[in-house]
Write a structure and sequence with these properties.
Elements lengths: L10 E5 L2 H4 L40 E8 L7 E2 L2 E2 H16 L4 E7 L20 E4 L3 H9 L10 H13 L7 E8 L16 E2 L5 E3 L1 H14 L2 E7 L14 H8 L12 E2 L4 H10 L9 E3 L10 E4 L2 E2 L16 E4 L6 E4 L1 H8 L5 E5 L10
Parallel strand pairs: 1-17, 2-5, 2-7, 7-10, 10-11
Antiparallel strand pairs: 3-4, 5-6, 8-9, 12-16, 13-14, 13-17, 15-16
Helix pairs in contact: 2-3, 4-5, 5-6
């Protein structure tokens, strides 16, 4: 994930050093730190500070049921892999990042095995193989990682209808509900299980029947019942269809509640995962992404600061940052003015996934203005 250097949602305390804080125990900085144990009073010279940031995370529970297209076309080459491998890799990354905040579930389309009288057409669906639940990353990743051979057609309308039935019967007390439809193209099965390749349009170019028409109706019904639909397209050029009308995925995205810019598609692209990451973060209350770079006003370069994440000290990054590589820890970027502590590796991932509640930087400061 990219390292966003904007304002952090974390409760960030930038604290003066031992002399400033009146702490006599130099070993305190290397022990487990109770963040509440250090409260800095203003120095008479006015150059020691506690500077908390604004907390921008207001956690919200949400159910996200992934509808995963495993139709035959998902076996088409996509870069060095297949479309199916590309989308499952992205979904696995999203689940690993956000399973602590979102209640993920999984439903495949077409369903695996015999799941109805339309199974010989490849238009069958089944109930979710993994129900929406908290902290179920292990089950989700195991299923997404067991990449079978894509087969059959795309029963999108049937799958959306089954998702609607699932949510209708779900009583988990969670009001925010979403369907994440991950597919590589337009549907080709009607809601009755009939295999068709295209929709029927009237003289004004409006869909009046067909697989996409049925899928759009199912999306409208879901939204009417409080379930938004997010569309993830495997290719980036799926905005138009062969009929020259508005592309089906784009229409599904708009119907599902997407707020796309004028001229931009209303679905997300596997080739550009960041907008979808930000969308999922907004769902659970992440308004602004956390920063892995902490400015240290009036810091001296020696001794180095001690950086703590949720009360545990982060080790220095042993990798030489001048080599362009990043390791796992933190390093002092003295080329910045003021100096900055840059957190790297898994610690930065933890911050950006909103899995931390506080960063504390404790350092020796030098005299400066009374405010910054």
């Amino acid at each position: 994930m990219a390292r966003d250097l904007g304002m952090s949602w974390l409760v960030l305390l930038v604290v003066g050093g031992l002399a400033c804080a009146g702490v006599d125990d130099p070993a305190a900085a290397s022990r487990h730190l109770d963040a509440g144990a250090f409260q800095l009073d203003a120095d008479p010279l006015g150059w020691c500070h506690v500077a908390p940031s604004v907390a921008l995370l207001q956690p919200k529970q949400a159910d996200v049921l992934i509808l995963l297209d495993r139709s035959g076309s998902m076996g088409t080459a996509f870069g060095a892999n297949t479309r199916y491998q590309a989308v499952t890799a992205l979904l696995s990354d999203l689940v690993a990042s956000y399973a602590n905040h979102l209640r993920f579930g999984l439903q495949e389309m077409p369903g695996s095995g015999i799941c109805g009288p339309q199974s010989n057409l490849g238009c069958c669906v089944s109930s979710p193989s993994i129900v929406t639940a908290p902290n179920n990353a292990q089950a989700m990743l195991a299923t997404l990682g067991a990449a079978g051979t894509p087969d059959g057609n795309s029963p999108t309308a049937l799958a959306l209808n089954a998702a609607h039935t699932y949510f209708d019967g779900l009583d988990d007390g969670v009001e925010n509900r979403y369907v994440l439809l991950a597919t590589d193209g337009a549907p080709d099965c009607t809601v009755t299980g009939q295999l068709l390749n295209a929709d029927t349009f009237d003289s004004q170019g409006t869909r009046i029947a067909g697989p996409c028409f049925d899928a759009l109706k199912e999306v409208h019904d879901l939204v009417a019942d409080g379930v938004d639909v997010i569309v993830l397209g495997v290719d980036s050029d799926l905005g138009d269809d062969l009929d020259g009308q508005v592309g089906c995925l784009d229409a599904l995205g708009h119907a599902g509640g997407a707020e796309a810019s004028p001229g931009s598609p209303a679905f997300y692209s596997v080739g550009d995962p960041r907008p979808l990451q930000l969308k999922l973060e907004q769902i659970f209350g992440g308004v602004t992404r956390a920063s892995c770079s902490l400015s240290l006003p009036y810091a001296t370069t020696t001794p180095n600061p001690a950086i703590f994440l949720d009360g545990q000290e982060i080790p220095p990054d042993a990798t030489d940052p001048s080599g362009g590589e990043s390791g796992n820890g933190w390093f002092l970027d003295a080329t910045q003015s003021p100096p900055a502590a840059r957190i790297t590796g898994a610690y930065c991932d933890q911050i950006e996934r909103f899995d931390a509640t506080q960063i504390l930087a404790r350092y020796e400061c030098q005299p400066g203005p009374s405010s910054f």
